[in-house]
Amino acid sequence: MAQNHENNVSHIHTAYSKQVLEQEAQNASERRQLIKIRKKRSFAIISVFVVFVLFFGVQIIQSRASLRDTNAQVAKQETKLKTVKKTNQNLKKQVKLLNNSDYLQKVIRQKYYYSKQGETIYNLPTQTTASTTTSSK
Q1: Of 1-5, 26-30, 79-83, 111-115, which has the strongest mean pLDDT?
Q2: How far apart, in whole angstroms, are the C-alpha atoms of residue 66 and residue 80?
Q3: Is residue 133 part of a domain?
Q4: What is the total count of domains within the chain?
Q5: InterPro entries, from UniProt (predicted)?
Q6: Is residue 91 part of a domain?
Q7: In b/e form, how buried is each residue of 56-81, taking b as 16+ CB within 10 angstroms?
């Protein structure tokens, strides 16, 4: 019986109902246009955001790579500095020793075969050269 009541309902086509339907249709059209505009706007905002993220992401990656290279160069230069400091320290020790006249005479005698008057210098092979000649036979 309920079905009969639903089929018996008909719409009244008055000027007011037509105006309301036209207003609803116009509102629905405006809503669709507003949704399209909002979608375009949100797409533009998201696109700008993505561009900024990509730009700054690339900058961060490049700065990290340059930092890694710089740290590698710093480590390399620090090891070089250590060796130079060690060499400098050894040279300072040698200068200090060369200021000692007894040590200087000893070095001159050994290195340049300098002799005092009436001295004879004999050059003898060292133990390392004798052992290498016997091991090579």
Answers
A1: 79-83
A2: 21
A3: no
A4: 1
A5: DivIC (IPR039076), FtsL/DivIC (IPR007060)
A6: yes
A7: eeeeeeeeeeeeeeeeeeeeeeeeee
